[in-house]
Amino acid sequence: MLFLRPLPPPSRRSAQSFLRTIATTHTSRTQTPPPAPWRASSPPPAAAIPPATATAPEPLSYHVHRTASQQLPVYHLAKRGGNLHQTRIRKIEGSIGDLRDELQMALGLKDEHIVINQTTRHIIIKGWKKAEVDKFLEERRF
Length: 142
What we know:
Structural class: alpha+beta
């Protein structure tokens, strides 16, 4: 019964890592004061109410998620031996057609130069337009 043998003790590095994790979570819990309770019958504190802005941005029907490294998911592609240059936009959620239409208007592209791949939900643009697309998405606060 080989599976019943005792396990060796954990390595020094893993034990130190575990203890460090325990120490940081314990101190972060004790240092954070509990939130001040307020009753639903009384108005919330002034700090809890966000200030009203006169020019609230209108909600968009699409969203472009950033990558794990907080970059915009816009990529240059070179196909057919480097003769076909394309720009690909990934990680689009919502109305992909609205994003395509707005990009086409902003970049001044023809209909055949900007295409939607419905299977992968990518937008493919003819030519290397990464800088222009990045600027377009940054203006819309993505």
